[in-house]
């Protein structure tokens, strides 16, 4: 069962009673606000896919006091399936992690036909959405409670980048980014498990680990579990990276390397890996990494290759990469990197 990351709502006769273009005084349907708040507190995002006049619908959401809950709302006259896809792309999550709520069977069928992975829900069942098993992440962490605000800050960054005049590196430099790398503490483990479960595109092996497994690695003398965080002038991104290293006498092996999809465009994907290369070189050991290809994590393979890793052996679906440590990378000049022991 896939945990839903975002619920995409129709508006007319779903979020509110009636059709906005026929009645400008439409009111919220009973229970909708409670559902929005409950899921938001669990770290589940909300968006909109509505056939409507954009300005009128956006103004009504503001008037009703719920506009802040909806990220990247798609309000247009196009197909709902296109709008649902646009939401997934804007948030940068898999479309199989979306749910779609609509009062019209035709609209639900159109979305289901195009995107069978999307969980389609009748608006009549909206009040029962929080009870669905897909709406219950195993943990609710500090990062998950703040997820909507983190994504809103991302939207502000993206808007600033869109109007920025100059190179991409100039823009990154203007963000005053601060990247932290710390050994995982017990308080980090819920978020660490959440990262392994939620992150698909930027997970080098696709492995998922439970809280208990991560805690065992954290306390193991033969392993190193690292957590990465990021902040900039717009605020914090939260905990956005995780690395698990198995430390042998002669060689270290990166068993898990992942980064949150929210930081793909920030040029930070290689920072945690660069740290591991530097640490291995200082310790005088070889550095290997496991990579398991999935249908989504090609970018992580490219990250390894650009960092200087070369494939040495293949064991079934697992490729073993190795770095010769001849060239130890520098951290990007446009961010401050703090490493805590």
TrEMBL record:
Record InterPro entries: Acyl_CoA_acyltransferase, FkbH_domain, GNAT_dom, HAD-like_sf, HAD_sf, HAD_SF_ppase_IIIC
SUPFAM superfamilies for the chain: Acyl-CoA N-acyltransferases (Nat), HAD-like
Domain N-acetyltransferase: 179-340
A Pfam entry, by short name: Hydrolase
Top-rank taxon, per record: Bacteria
Keywords: Plasmid
Name the UniProt record assigns to this protein: HAD-IIIC family phosphatase
Species assigned in the record: Streptomyces durmitorensis
């Amino acid at each position: 069962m896939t945990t839903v990351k975002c619920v995409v709502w129709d508006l007319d006769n779903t979020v509110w009673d009636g059709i906005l273009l026929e009645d400008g005084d439409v009111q919220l349907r009973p229970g909708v606000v409670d559902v929005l708040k409950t899921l938001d507190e669990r770290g589940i995002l909300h968006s909109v896919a509505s056939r409507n006049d954009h300005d009128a619908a956006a103004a009504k959401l503001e008037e009703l006091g719920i506009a802040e809950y909806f990220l990247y709302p798609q309000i247009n006259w196009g197909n709902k399936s296109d709008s649902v896809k646009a939401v997934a792309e804007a948030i940068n999550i898999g479309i199989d992690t979306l749910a779609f709520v609509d009062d019209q069977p035709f609209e639900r069928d159109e979305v289901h036909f195009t995107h069978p992975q999307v969980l389609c829900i009748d608006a009549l069942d909206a009040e029962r959405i929080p009870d669905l098993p897909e709406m219950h992440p195993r943990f609710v962490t500090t990062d998950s409670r703040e997820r909507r605000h983190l994504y809103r800050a991302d939207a502000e960054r993206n808007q600033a980048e869109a109007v920025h005049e100059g190179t991409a590196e100039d823009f990154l430099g203007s963000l005053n980014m601060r990247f932290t790398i710390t050994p995982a503490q017990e308080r980090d483990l819920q978020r660490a498990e959440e990262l392994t479960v939620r992150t698909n595109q930027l997970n080098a092996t696709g492995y998922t680990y439970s809280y208990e497994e991560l805690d065992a690695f954290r306390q193991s003398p033969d392993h190193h579990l690292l957590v990465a965080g990021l902040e900039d002038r717009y605020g914090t991104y939260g905990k956005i990276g995780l690395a698990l290293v198995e430390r042998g006498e002669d060689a270290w092996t990166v068993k898990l390397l992942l980064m949150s999809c929210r930081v793909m465009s920030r040029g930070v994907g290689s920072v945690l890996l660069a740290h591991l290369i530097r640490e291995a070189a200082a310790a005088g050991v070889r550095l290997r990494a496991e990579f398991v290809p999935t249908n989504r994590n090609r970018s992580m393979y490219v990250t390894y290759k650009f960092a200087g890793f070369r494939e040495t052996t293949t064991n079934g679906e697992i490729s073993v990469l190795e770095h010769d440590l001849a060239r130890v990378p520098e951290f990007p000049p446009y961010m401050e990197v703090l490493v805590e022991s």
